[in-house]
Specification:
Layout: E1 3-5, E2 15-18, E3 35-38, H1 39-43, E4 61-63, H2 84-98, H3 102-114, H4 118-121, H5 123-129, H6 134-148, H7 157-162, E5 165-172, E6 176-179, E7 185-187, E8 189-194, E9 198-203, E10 206-208, E11 216-218, E12 225-227, E13 240-248, E14 251-254, E15 258-262, E16 276-279, E17 284-286, E18 298-302, E19 315-317, E20 323-325, E21 338-343, E22 348-351, E23 357-360, H8 376-379, E24 385-391, E25 396-402, E26 407-410, E27 412-416, E28 420-425, E29 435-438, E30 443-446, E31 455-463, E32 466-484, E33 489-491, E34 497-500, E35 502-506, E36 510-515, E37 518-519, E38 529-532, E39 535-538, E40 547-555, E41 558-568, E42 571-575, E43 581-586, E44 591-593, E45 597-600, E46 604-609, E47 621-623, E48 629-631, E49 640-648, E50 651-662, E51 666-669, E52 674-677, E53 682-685, E54 687-689, E55 697-702, E56 705-706, E57 713-715, E58 719-722, E59 731-738, E60 743-753, E61 775-780, E62 786-792, E63 803-810, E64 819-825, E65 830-834, E66 840-848, E67 863-864, E68 875-880, E69 886-892, H9 896-899, E70 905-912, E71 920-924, ...
Parallel strand pairs: 6-15, 16-23, 25-32, 33-41, 43-50, 52-60
Antiparallel strand pairs: 1-4, 2-3, 5-8, 7-12, 9-10, 9-13, 11-12, 13-14, 13-15, 17-20, 18-21, 19-20, 21-22, 24-27, 26-30, 28-31, 29-30, 31-32, 32-35, 34-39, 36-37, 36-40, 38-39, 40-41, 42-45, 44-48, 46-49, 47-48, 49-50, 51-54, 53-58, 55-56, 55-59, 57-58, 59-60, 61-62, 62-65, 63-64, 63-66, 66-67, ...
């Protein structure tokens, strides 16, 4: 009987064409006419489940052949209880499906009215035997798809927890479960279900009572067995076959039959082995015969001193563990041979008693020079002989292998000279993608064997004496493997389904069905279930049909067991997505509205717009089976609210999606290609139109990378401006306009031209513009590899055309993308272009003048060149391992103009280097290929050859690659640590053997960490640090250690894969060192008499503090007082200084001491008095401190505390004169000639520098980096202690993050950096060319602005010179007038100087400065100085008021007081001429003015 399931899938829009049935189908009557059946129509008919419940016909199956009976229709048996109305409905469906003539339908109704007679019952077998029409086959396929496509339960937790489900096994142990006898036994079994399942076990097919065995327990909420041996017991007692059963009220699921075995590693039997005596040149087999273990041990041969036996094609180990000598040589006596067995679970190695060889020879001397002699055997008197097989014996053998396993064929031959082995397959080639040679070509391994690998293979052993062959017949069998594994089946009540269990194997496996763990034959009968071999068909399933079915398929090589449950659900529709979602889409785009739903029976889904109208389907709409509605092209009128309604017989559910249509984002004015001169400004436009309700973001890319907007660039909403264009600005610029929903791109190319002379012709005064585009492109002289392109230039717009750029586009590899082809002078308008084969060219031309570039010309006509074989091969071929057992071969693929033909591909070949292996090859269409199953770090020869449909390229070059590296197996030995000083140690170690590196030895690395400090209660960081040493070194220095600390150190070997095992941990202690600078040194001046000093202990004492040393000195301008030193106890952190001089300032230098000496010093100055001017000259550089004080100061060179006023230090010395012991970390010097940034730094060490140089010559540094910069260049100097032949690299980075490096030859200082940009900030460091790990401190400097060079010196300006001359002339005239008046005896006003204190220093500076108050500072004649420092006239207490009342006092016409100071009226005039002092000329000028 053939069935068709008309499943009504929600939104299924597929159509099935019902073709005409021929006259031999089902009945001899005429065939129904063909008709296209729309399954969407069927989805709304009674074919949807749920047309009736209880006794109604709810199935989806229709007996098709019943419709082709001779005038009668036979309903299916499960529909015979249907009402006449239901039958008429079914008949209508069949009429739609098959176009049954109306007469047949009426006859069928009459048959229904009178009941089913014997005649109708007898029709079924006959119709079942007849051939159905062709479309019935298609219907049957739909039936199979329908039965297989059961309901899928969504992963929503609420639904998962709500629905009931039979058990499902989720985790179980492997079938062959081997356990370690030293551990507890764990047999896993976990399952899920609702309700949660319970578990029980069988052992050896019998119920396993866990409660009776105290050692056995089961994990909670799991079926996993735990057998505990902590209280005794033998694991071997529990060996056997176990099976887990997971059960709930809906069924029982079974695990695989788990065979439990205990791992065994038996001891080697004791035996005394006599020496093996053999004649030189004879073959020899040393048998291993390892004890049988579980699993089988790994066999390897070593000497009794644990040195591996060197193997080659003469001496090698067979797959059975025996050691084979194709011919014995005298040097084989130099060691003994011991077979070793390594057992996996116990991680033990057992060694057999060693074999001792005694070789009888005619040449008793083992001359090592003969080992590589081409005629070694005859030179030693060994007779040559033809090959013979040592394994396998005879000329033929057979071997059976299971499908999917690896086939290993082995041939080991003896002979003199040593034979070569080659492999062949009769009647075909070896499978190149799966076959590989092992053990020096003595073994052939074919991975993942399949049936086509069966056949006869033979190995050929040959040397110059002859050859022999051995044939191996290979048979491939197969354990069962799945073709169609049964899946869980979830149905609605009344639905139909099937479980299929289809497997294959050799021999053909048998299939056994079980239900809930019991054979199906012994299960209660189920009328809704039918078994047909490997398929179980379910019809009209009900709630009671729920169960778990097991399919067991097996043959003599194994079995497969699968669980699949049948669950019947009755669930009303529900929506799975959030309600009332908002979706915004772009106009004219395709979009999809999702409406995930669930229900059983599967609901019918319909879509409506704005709550009205018919179901949306067809035209611009398409509904998918999962409920999604696709709108093929969004329009403005599609905006609105969309409602999806899911309906089944149990109810309905609905959800809404609000759709908003937005305008697209478009760049309506795109940036254009431009050509600009260096130093000019360029503006790239990018004007965007977008939907105002969306947020617009405009960004720029340069060469497809995000553009850094520096200080030379200005980004606006609609443009990008670049000021001062430079060569580095050349490239492609992409404007990216994006919103939350879409984006648009526009690209332009900026070409930067070098500076050119300004034209002086008459066109210079005319406005200039970019040239017009060239026009009328024409292709002539068409040849196979060339063509002539001619064009008419456009108007140059008053600026001569300098260049033409010819671009091309091809439509095969990168259609629509234009590439530069060539460049021609502006005087050319015709050129011959060289072409590549098999390219469909199209050309355009761009004109360039000093203003910019023209728009591209219109494209030329296309011209296709003929194809040819490639003339080159891919470049940059590499072979590198990405894992330890593979090698990835990569290359740079060829572009469109080098492909030369269609279907470009690459032939990749590889083989082991220095072997006679045949080349492996594979054809690849990409740019990489991975070779698998390679030995660790083995060199390979690699060739990559290009090929297209016209032929192959030239023979490729051979490149050497290496397979993947593995972690090193050995650590450096004999590691010795020698403490050199308080901050450095010397290391020494022995090299590792090259065969233990398992890769390329990159470096030796030392890991060290500070374990503790010798100072009590001092917390230290135990962070691991590392020091690296090149692979050719066996000694090195580790510096920058903390003194007075306990350290630990380990060494490792590093290759490309990573670190190897760690060496033995070494411990060492660093001695005391000098301390770091005291912290937070503060200088406060509460009054003019006292200065208070405070400080904190050093951050790093580096030993036991013995005290502090304070040195201070008074200074006033450039004069220094005597330096005073004070020593304090280690606990004192305060000190007060009584000022002896209220005018001078003080400079304090503080350092801490240990027994080793003084450490770094910190310097501060006392605050300046309020009435003291800021000095203009810097104090001289401090003298060098003690040895231990060398080093740069960190924060101590900063400003003083808030109470103090910081005096800036402005050094006047040249950068090259700065001492290396300076305490200033960084100094900036600015002169009128150039902007000079000088950064000086001490060697990066704490401790005695001179001692470090003597005792640690391997520790190398770079310091005192000095930069003398201008606007466009900088001179760099530095100091170092590297060797005289060391080359360096200067690396500098500008504000735009552009990195540049300059190589510097040895002894080439100073080095000048050119092409710098004015006003730009740079960071710079210096490091040796061969060791980037040692680097100077990164310093920062800034070039001066470009305007500095353009400004003239004020001293050279004419107006300034004239002004100075006028002032000088005026002063000269005034001096002459004063001299004349003085000569005539005139009186001059004598003004009493305001009292000022006298400073301790001479008011006349040594530097020649002029003091305008020269005479005014002297006391008046006849006056005396009071005790408080004021100056009074003897016997005079007059005041200016009194003088004003005197008759002698008078004013001149402009009100200036020119009279002589007089005493009171009642006093006698005693002054005369001697009462007047010679006043200064300046005061005279004041008076005259």
């Amino acid at each position: 009987m053939r069935w068709l399931a008309a499943r009504g899938a929600a939104g299924d829009s597929g159509e099935v064409a019902a073709t005409a049935a021929d006259s031999t189908d089902c009945a001899p009557s005429r065939s129904p006419s063909p008709r296209r059946l729309n399954w969407r129509e069927a989805s709304h008919s009674s074919l949807i489940p749920g047309t009736g419940r209880g006794g109604n016909c709810t199935g989806r199956l229709i007996d098709l052949c019943a419709a082709w009976g001779p005038g009668a229709f036979l309903p299916s048996a499960h529909c015979r209880r249907a009402t006449p109305g239901a039958v008429r409905k079914r008949l209508k469906e069949v009429e739609e499906l098959s176009s049954i003539p109306k007469a047949h339908v009426e006859q069928l109704e009459r048959a229904r009215a009178r009941g089913l007679g014997s005649r109708e019952r007898g029709l079924v077998p006959r119709m079942a035997r007849q051939q159905p029409p062709p479309w019935v086959h298609a219907a049957f396929l739909l039936l199979l798809l329908s039965l297989g496509g059961a309901i899928e339960i969504p992963m929503d937790p609420s639904i998962q927890n709500e629905l009931t489900q039979p058990p499902t096994i989720t985790k179980q142990s492997v079938k062959d479960h081997i356990v370690d006898p030293r551990d507890n036994i764990l047999i896993e079994c976990e399952a899920k279900g609702n309700p949660a399942p319970s578990f029980h076990w069988t052992r050896n097919s019998r119920f396993f009572n866990i409660a009776k065995d105290p050692r056995v327990s089961m994990r909670r909420r799991s079926g996993t067995l735990v057998i505990d041996f902590r209280s005794g017991g033998r694991p071997e007692e529990y060996e056997g076959e176990y099976q887990c059963f997971a059960r709930n009220k809906f069924g029982t699921a079974l695990s695989n039959r788990i065979r439990l075995q205990v791992s065994k590693s038996p001891l080697w039997p004791k035996e005394n082995l006599d020496p093996v005596v053999v004649q030189e040149g004879a073959p020899l087999t040393l048998q291993c015969n390892p004890p049988p273990g579980l699993p089988s041990p790994v066999i390897f041969w070593m000497s009794s001193s644990m040195e591996p036996i060197t193997q080659d094609k003469r001496v090698s180990q067979g797959h059975n563990g025996d050691l084979y000598f194709s011919n014995v040589m005298l040097q084989d006596m130099q060691t003994d041979y011991s077979c070793n067995a390594r057992f996996h679970f116990t991680h033990t190695i057992q060694q057999k008693n060693p074999f001792t060889l005694k070789v009888l020879t005619n040449h008793p001397y083992n001359d090592s020079s003969l080992r590589n002699h081409p005629d070694m055997y005859s030179a030693r008197g060994v007779a040559e002989r033809t090959p013979s097989f040592m394994y396998p014996q005879g000329t033929s053998s057979s071997q059976m292998v299971l499908r999917g396993m690896d086939l290993l064929l082995e041939c080991i031959a003896s002979g003199v000279p040593t034979p070569d082995i080659a492999w062949y397959k009769k009647g075909g080639d070896l499978p190149s993608d799966k076959a590989k040679f092992e053990n020096f070509n003595k073994a052939l391994r074919i991975t993942n064997v399949s049936e086509e690998d069966s056949g006869e293979y033979f190995c050929l052993a040959s040397n110059k004496m002859g050859s022999i062959r051995h044939t191996i017949s290979v048979r491939v069998k197969a354990a069962p493997y799945w073709l169609d594994e049964p899946k869980n089946l979830i149905l609605a009540p009344g639905e139909d389904g099937r479980l299929v269990c289809r497997a294959n194997g050799n021999p053909k496996p048998t299939v056994q069905w079980m239900v809930n763990g019991e054979p199906l034959q012994s299960a209660p009968p189920n009328p809704n279930r039918e078994v047909a071999g490997d398929t179980i068909i379910f019809r009209d399933t009900q709630i009671s049909s729920r169960a778990v079915y097991q399919c067991n398929t097996s043959n003599e090589h194994g079995y497969l067991l699968a669980n699949a449950f049948v669950s019947v659900l009755d669930v009303p529709p529900r929506m799975l997505s959030p309600r009332n979602q908002l979706m915004r889409v772009i106009l004219y785009n395709r979009t999809r509205l999702d409406c995930p739903f669930f229900g059983s029976p599967i609901p019918t889904l319909r879509w409506f717009k704005n709550g009205q109208g018919s179901n949306l389907d067809g035209g611009n709409y398409h509904v998918y089976e999962n409920g999604s509605l696709e709108i093929k092209m969004i329009r403005k009128e599609d905006q609105g609210i969309y409602t999806c309604v899911a309906t089944n017989i149990l109810g309905k559910a609905e959800n809404q999606v609000r759709l908003e249509v937005k305008d697209p984002t478009r760049i309506f004015r795109m940036p254009e290609d431009q050509v600009a001169k260096r130093g000019t400004a360029v503006q790239l436009e990018c004007r965007v139109k977008h939907d105002p309700s969306l947020r617009l973001t405009v960004s720029w890319l340069k060469d497809d990378e995000p553009l850094y907007i520096g200080n030379r660039m200005k980004k606006e909403d609609d443009s990008l401006t670049i000021f001062g264009v430079a060569e580095r600005d050349q490239g492609s610029y992409t404007c990216v306009a994006s919103t939350e929903l879409d984006q648009d791109l526009a690209k332009a190319y900026l070409t930067v031209l070098a500076d050119q002379a300004t034209p002086t012709n008459r066109l210079a005064a005319l406005p200039k513009g970019r040239p017009d585009r060239p026009r009328d492109l024409e292709l002539t002289d068409l040849a196979e590899r060339s063509v002539r392109l001619t064009w008419i230039p456009g108007d140059d717009n008053n600026s001569p055309i300098t260049d033409y750029i010819v671009q091309f586009e091809e439509d095969q590899f990168q259609p629509g993308v234009w590439h530069d082809h060539s460049k021609f002078p502006g005087s050319v308008n015709s050129a011959v272009l060289q072409l590549s084969p098999y390219v469909n060219y199209q050309f355009r031309v761009i004109a360039i003048n000093e203003v910019g570039s023209s728009h591209p010309s219109l494209p030329s006509e296309r011209y296709r060149t003929s194809g040819a074989p490639p003339e080159s091969n891919p470049s940059d071929v590499k072979g590198e391992g990405t894992r330890k057992n593979n090698m990835e071969i990569t290359w740079t693929p060829m572009n469109a103009t080098s492909a030369f033909g269609p279907n470009l591909r690459y032939i990749v070949k590889w083989r082991r280097r220095e072997t006679r292996e045949t080349w492996n090859n594979v054809t690849v269409w990409g740019s990489r290929y991975v070779v698998g199953q390679t030995p660790v770090y083995v060199p390979y020869e690699i060739r990559v050859q290009a090929e297209n449909d016209f032929g192959k390229g030239p023979e490729p070059d051979t490149v050497i690659g290496y397979s993947g590296e593995d972690y090193p197996r050995a650590a450096p030995t004999d590691v010795k640590v020698r403490v050199m000083n308080s901050t450095a140690i010397g290391l020494q170690w022995n090299r590792v053997y090259s065969d233990t590196v398992q890769g390329q030895l990159r470096e030796y690395r030392a890991y060290y960490w500070r374990e503790s400090s010798l100072l009590k209660n001092l917390w230290v960081s135990q962070k691991r640090q590392q020091a690296s040493f090149s692979s050719d070194r066996t000694r090195g220095v580790v510096g920058r250690l903390f003194p007075y600390s306990n350290y630990k150190l380990e060494m490792v070997v590093v290759n490309g894969r990573g670190d190897g095992p760690r060496s033995e941990t070494k411990e060492f202690t660093t001695p005391e060192g000098v301390p770091s600078a005291p912290r937070r040194f503060r200088v406060r001046q509460p009054n003019l008499e006292t200065i208070n000093l405070e400080w904190d202990h050093p951050e790093h004492p580096n030993g036991i503090l013995t005290g502090y040393t304070l040195k201070y000195v008074a200074f006033n301008g450039t004069k220094l007082g005597k330096q005073i030193a004070e020593n304090f106890s280690p606990n004192q952190t305060k000190f007060s200084v009584q000022r002896s001089d209220p005018v001078s300032r003080y400079r304090f230098t503080l350092s801490a001491r240990t027994q080793v000496g003084s450490g770094e010093a910190v310097t501060e100055e006392s605050p300046a008095p309020p009435n003291e001017a800021t000095p203009t000259a810097a104090p001289p550089t401090l003298p060098p401190t003690t040895e231990g004080a060398i080093g740069a100061v960190g924060s101590t060179a900063a400003a003083a505390t808030t109470e103090a006023t910081t005096v800036p230090i402005i050094p006047t010395v040249a950068p090259t004169t700065i001492a290396t012991t300076t305490t200033v970390a960084a100094t900036t010097t600015t002169t009128a000639a150039a902007a000079t940034t000088t950064t000086t730094e001490s060697p990066p060490t704490t401790g005695t520098r001179s001692k470090m140089q003597e005792s640690a010559p391997d520790e190398q540094f770079i310091w005192n980096v000095t930069v003398l910069s201008n606007s466009k260049w900088a001179n760099i100097t530095w100091k170092h202690n590297f060797g005289p032949g060391t080359d360096f690299v200067v690396e500098y980075i500008d504000s735009n993050h552009t990195k540049k490096t300059v190589p510097v030859k040895a002894q080439a200082q100073p080095i000048q950096l050119t092409d710098l940009y004015p006003g730009m900030t740079y960071t710079l460091r210096i490091y040796p060319r061969d060791n980037e790990g040692i680097s100077s401190t990164v310093i920062t400097f800034m070039t001066s602005t470009a305007y500095t060079n353009n400004q003239a010196d004020i001293a050279t300006q004419g107006w300034f010179i004239g002004l100075m001359c006028a002032i000088a002339l005026l002063v000269l005239i005034l001096l002459i007038v004063c001299f004349i008046k003085r000569s005539r005896g005139g009186k001059y006003p004598v003004r009493e100087k305001k009292d000022v204190p006298l400073g301790p220093e001479d008011p006349k500076e040594e530097d020649g400065s002029f003091d305008y108050s020269d005479e005014d500072n002297k006391p008046l004649q006849g006056s005396q100085t009071s005790l408080d420092g004021t100056i009074k006239q003897q016997e005079s207490d007059d005041s200016l008021v009194d003088y004003g009342e005197g008759g002698e006092g008078q004013f001149n016409e402009d009100g200036s007081f020119i009279g002589q100071y007089t005493v009171k009226k009642d006093k006698e005039e005693t002054e005369g001429n001697e009462s007047s002092e010679a006043t200064s000329p300046v005061n005279a000028i004041y008076s005259l003015a």
